[in-house]
Structures
1.
Amino acid sequence: MNPALTARKVEFRYGDRDILRGVDIDLFPGEVTVLLGPNGSGKSTLIKILSGVLSPRAGDVLLCGRPPRSFPRREMARLLSAVGQDPPVDFPMTVEAYVALGRFPHQGFFGGTTSEDREQVARALDLTELAALRGRALSEISAGERQRATVARAIAQGATVMLLDEPTAFLDIRHRVAFYEVVTRLAETCGVAALVASHDLSLCAEYGERIVLLSDGAVAAQGRPERVLTPENVRAAYGVEVACDRNPATGAIRVTPLRARPPGVET
Amino acid sequence: MSRGRVETARFGTVLAALLSALAGAVVLSTATGPVSIPFGGFVDAFLRGGDGTPARILLSLRLPRALLGVLVGGALASSGVAFQALLRNPLADPYILGVSGGAAVGALTVALFLSADASPVLPLCAFLGAAAAALSVFLLARRRSGVSPERLILMGVVVGAFLNAVIMLMVTLSPPGKIPGALYWLMGDLSLGTPRRVAVLLPYVTAGSAVLFLLSRGLDLLLLGDSEAFQAGLSVERVKTATYLTASLLAGSVVAVSGLIGFVGLIVPHGARALVGSGHRRLLPAAFLLGAAFLVVSDLIARTASPSGELPVGAVTALAGAPFFLYLLRRNGGRS
């Protein structure tokens, strides 16, 4: 199958600091890829480059075989949606109006709101369990609810490639699980190619078909969870000792931190 | 779905109320003045096309002045809405960004040193001044990482202070006979409302407000911030440039005709937001009407409050505006 989004040898630097040094990544339709990596390993920068917000210093990004910036803006947004790390705290609109902004690529400046738009917004609110909060101001709901609203906006955008930067950071365990369920369902039923940046090692092993482990701006390992989530890989990337075994209930890889001082911490 | 209909109905009600308030303000302002005009005078002026003294006062003095208030108030409020969305900052308005100062320098150059008449090029020169000020603020605030709203405001304040000094110098160095008029104009003044000026301003305000309205969905998206707006499918730079130029054109053309009238561009958008929310398709028309009504009433107060003569309308808007702004800030818990 052809990947929906490819990046080859992507390099990026801020000033004289290398952020990405030759990253290759492929996102396939119908597949959830999880992007792991310690803070500062370049996950957010990679997502900004894949979504065309930043241009790579070297290397190529191809969305459906073309550079992202070669698409007209709205056409590209119909193919690819992305949400950043910081949900807007002070956004002066209701949850519903905020989610409806995701329909812009289908409406343009002058188009009215169609019944299709309303259906997609209602569906996105349902999937993120926000229907009851639709009339509340974004500033009046909790950080986790706001984060679900950003995910709902990306869902309402209806793109085939979804890039989500730490969409579960503020979520409780119930909504974390619900998020992965929703994104897996979108992949299976709508053929969405999803990239989810995360710090949930065990949870992403349950749901991620593929894991890309980023370390210091380069791909340290990628593939099936059991190939990527090994004690050696986790130690090399995060500097933490972990035990990796199979969850007896689900059979998925389970990563458990071991109580030990991380390197550099003296007694 | 029914929620949407309820909201639309509510918006219709608010808009109708604002329109009636504006119409009421215009009628009241036209009817009030040092010369009291009997009802027959109105009939004579508006229905029979008469040319008696009452009719002339109504048609060539009071009505143009009220209509100038409508255009100026509406344009300032619309421009304020646009700048607040553009900079994602509730404190943004044409004044704080130095745009009005630039417009004043442009207009003064024409008025003091070239031609005294209200020529159609006056709004154009004011616009050039406004655009030049806006551009220099933008370039000064720009860094490699982009333009942050905070830096734009900071640079706007600096450039605005500099332009104020330039304005004072220009006034001081101008031909002596023109100084009082220029000073009065600087404080904000609608007394120059002649049918001709209304006609000069009308196309600028109509075109500028229409363009902003067409951009309204883009302004909604700009509230998300640059990266997210881009990812949502907006040509961010294009929309920002168009908004910047249009808002400067509106502010500039208005300053050319009525001088520096403060606070309308800052507070009216907040008041309109409290009525219809932040979606720009509703906010822009509501802010235009509210700004227009606010300025017509302020001008009525300016004309009639003091027995010893007219107050500058800019003083009235600031006197009424500052406490209202504080009230809004406190009511929203400092959020908006």
2.
Amino acid sequence: MNALTTEKLTKAYSTKVALHDCTLAIPQGSVVALVGPNGAGKTTLLEIATGLVKATSGGATVLDGLEPGSLAALQRVAFVAQDAPLYQAISVGSLVHLAEALNPIFDRDFAIARLKEVEVPWKRRVGKLSGGQQAQVALTLAMARRPELLVLDEPTSGLDPLARQEFLAHLMNQVATSGMSVIFSSHSLAELERVADYLVLIVSGEIQIASPLEEIVAHHRVVVCAPGDLDGRHEIEVIDRQLDVRFGSHLVRTRNMETLRGLDSHATTLEEIVLGYLRRAQGIRVLEEIGRS
Amino acid sequence: MDIDKDSLPTQQDHPSPISFGLDLRSGVPTYLQLVQQVEAALRLGHLQVGDRLPKVKDVVSSIAINPNTVLKAYRELEIRGITSGRPGVGTFIVVAPPTISTKAFDQLRSELVTGWLRDARGVGLEDDAIVALFHSALSESMYLANSEGSRSESDGDA
């Protein structure tokens, strides 16, 4: 069972290609972190997965074959857009009633209990709540719909560290209880290492990595050596290196550890791996710009 | 059925004696940190045979980590023979982790002092160099152990 499948997905806007040839197969039950620089195409991918935007070419399905945005998909997928947009002028209580009336499935008791637990005042106007409280309200409404797939666009970006921790703890609690899949975009590498078990790294509309976290960490190493020492070794891709040094760190990707025999290499953190890919992408962009000018 | 369920001890009746913490900077995989904390708690006597580990739901709510990470840690503890899971009830400590005997410990230590360390000083290595060499050898031996593990896994794919 897949939570999200895409096949050569491409989305072109009039001035820019937001996604190019993205192919993904994300197993159900995953907690997927979607990372990449601003403008990489993260939001576009999430909007296609929720049916808010149509692909230019290629296809996407959610929860094993459902077309995003179809009635069947809408009932089983919940989405919280960036900055958790909510109706600001009505009270929290009214908002819960509204959500209940608008959704075929809505667990009202859960919503009430959870808002009480995170100490969101029932009668207060939504616009008067703090950013952290608004994020909690948006998450509660989305979770009360009992989705099988929850899609969150930068859910923690406006939260202070404590609110962020509480938000993630509640999210993980729900994942443990219901087994739902989650796809969330984030700029916080420390956060994703903690809560995610699957990573999609996207740069300039193209997917660089899409794997379970453990596999990513297992297949990357930092090798400290002279640049020439890596020549002629098989099944190895150098992702990131310090330029113009006689001896330095190289981030390499390999499935065959044997190829590194005799070199001083060590495992590295997910954060360093992602940074390596981002630096590489930036380097390529700089070279392209120099080439053009 | 209901009576049976009611008679089972619940988490509220007997809260687990330990709670977990995380060191995000240590570089030790999260699941392994949980395993090590259970083992350390056992060695120090904070956990004993018969004690229950916290529910997965409670762990993820307290330290905000992926539930699969907790499940992996609990599975690892079970593989190591330290815990046993009873479906619907919880995960319980069944044996204390094997500790190295004092005799073996003393022997390894004396081999290190009168053997390798003496040789290292003999060729003129200073403390910093000895530590650096030891770390590098340690990481190589871990890496060899890992690559043997990953190779046997990938054999299955092929």
3.
Amino acid sequence: MFVLQLAVAGIAIGSVYALIALGIVLIYKCSGVVNFAQGGYAMLGAFITYGLTSVGLPSVIALVLAIAVMGGLGALTQILVLRPMLKAPVVAVMMATLGILITFRAVCLLIWGPDQIGFPALFPIGAIELSGIFMTYNYIAAFLLSAILCAGFLAFYHYTPIGLMQRCTADNTRAALAVGIHVSNQVTIAWTASAMLAGLGGALLASLNGLSLGLSNIGLVAFPVIVLGGMTSLPGAVVAGLVLGILQAVTDGVLTPAIERFLREHTDIYSVGTLQQVIPYALLVLVLLVRPQGIFGTKESERV
Amino acid sequence: MLDVSGLSVRYDSVIAALEGIDFEVGEGRIVALLGPNGAGKSTLLKAIAGMLPFEQGEIASGKAVFDGVLLNGKHPAAITRSGIALVQDGRQCFRNLSVGENLKAASFRHSKGAEDRLQLVLTYFPILEEFYARPAGVLSGGQLQMLVIGMALMIQPRLLMLDEPSLGLSPVMVQSVFEIVERLHQDLGMTVVVAEQTVPRLMEIADDVYVLSRGHSVLHAPPDEIDEDRLQSLYLS
């Protein structure tokens, strides 16, 4: 029962990971750029939500406004920073995204300081019990919102004209240009959507775990998620996000205490620290060793 | 219809790919653009279609004018909207998308009458209807060539430019590609430019021939003045 309880929490956190990872995959697919700033967008989304509530706005309105601001910011970043780098190597562009991350952290540090901040409640406080498993409204709402948005986003990507243009751009830039698709506009759309997903994901995580600059590290957790999912697979990112969330929760609740108990009995070591933070990267190494193309990825092969 | 004059193209600001090219395409004609590998045929077509900036290339001097409108500096999307479709080399399409989605994507910016054009394309290429829901990646080389020509037709072009459509195809397939070009020309009155290295069949349908070599235009003549020996000597000169 305890493991189930942990799994429920893990699914909620994992669905938020999926939301944030979707944005990274989206940008990678249509421009080949790995966006290291994604964690920064998540953090900034949470801080802006917090900032808007601290001037008196209701938290839900603050959240919606913050997501809109993040969308604008994502578009602006692409237009001001990435478009001028059209002819630059992809590695240089990725370094630029690292610069964006550092800038965001510095700005948040200047405005809100380095300390952990109590994040305003986005959802009613309370919990329900379902055959012995407790679920707080917070976790249920985070899961439901993420799940609906992930599903909605995937549907948008596969069944709308803009989604079709996104997939064309991701599939073959030269062909997209030849049929009259504005490729750079499609990349702007991808950055806008990605920053909005990250902003919402950041605010949801802050509502579960509190808010600090450390939230930007979520970008680093998202990388194992997308590698696990196969880099270019959107459904892969969703499933991998859930797997990672559950693994982290179970590690935190079961594995870490068991290891620490064992170590205390047999050695002088008292604690192994936060093992769940290591799990994503251990998994990353394992996946890269066994299945480099990720679980949902396909081996690159092309008919010539 | 299309008037290119004194066109010079550079890649990476230094490498000269074309030098002072004059190239004219009259309405309703089929123009063959011949030349050996690396002569600059693809570069000329890309310059007209506005694709150069995406491959580190630029028009250094000269101009390309289509129906009185200057094409220099225009985005490929604007150029396709003005009625020019380029079927690039390498059969560029969306291989992870279905055949139907490929055709839909091509008509996205040209939605007026798209349904009728789709029917037309499927009449010309019944194989595309058969594979409509399958990913384009499963098509053979010849079928892919049909798809990319079909996609170009969805743009509703007045000028269709084909870059080495016969490359890597079996002789039978090459034959049917040129039959299609001829039918498009006859049925729809479409103006066509075909870039090839050497195809006797192309000489039968072309109204006009340009030969490029090492970035220079070395010959402009009607097709009956051109034979294999003359081409060889031009290519080697």
4.
Amino acid sequence: MKQTLRRLSCLSLLLLSASSYAGDHQYLRMGMPEAYAQECVGCHVAYPPKMLSAKSWQRMMSNLGQHYGTDARLAPEKARQIEAWLVDYAARKGRRAYEMPPEDRITQTRWFVKEHRHVAPPVWRLESVKSAANCQACHSLAEQGRYDDDELVVPKGVTPAQMRAFLD
Amino acid sequence: MPDSAKVQAAPRKVSAVFIKTEIALMKKNPLAVGAALCALWAAGIAQAGGGTSPQAQLQRWNAQAEEAGQAARGKAFFTQRHGGEWSCASCHGNPPVADGRHAVTGKTLKPLAPAGNPVAFSDQARADKWFRRNCKDVLSRECTPREKADVLAFLIQTPR
């Protein structure tokens, strides 16, 4: 019985990893630390490291006691692991590489504001969206670190007049 | 040699033989590498995963509080605000048997009540950590053992 269970779990693990790779799971290829999945992703989607500069990630990680209104302090070893990974894959190209937005908020970077310029302000406040921090509301594969335009979904409550952001 | 030691020693010997055989096989068939690692990994997860139960954690808080947690008190505590902006239910929902949703980020959270989530409270260190973090969000302090016992008694009793 035990053996059968083990074989089954083994099979499902193999299938799981196969399907994740087939789905081009960015974070698996990047070796996302388990600590990032356990600690950070407990409260928010796994924001891709390249969305902020290394300097911004470092400043954020040195101030986890006041992390957007919550005390997110971690065991030092875990914090080190997470910071090292974020810095390793941080923005490297162009303006993003040195930009330090207010409060190190991704949503305040110039590139984010520009990319989302057609999203009407009421859309961010929809119950189905809640906040600009909820990437998953429109970027259906955000959990896997994928933000392609053709994977966009329209959240519930968007009016026809507000559709522009999803069409171009 | 006591009997218990013999019992523990036996599986080690078996797994050593098992690994040697596997290594021999791997030379012929690289797929076996994956299969063997996978089996070991699965066995490891089974041993390491959690190691406690909601009931055992409740007993622990009961002992520290020196009284049994009361579900009715826990329910009130869970659904009320405590001077701040949020209650526990703001993110975990009420009743917390379905998926919750983070009040700020909108992130989907797995159900907190064991009836809705078999892994809930199966790992003591994890439960301790989130009690510490989330109590600070809701009460601006850590929860007392009695508050934790009450909440856990409520969660365990919450039906699907």
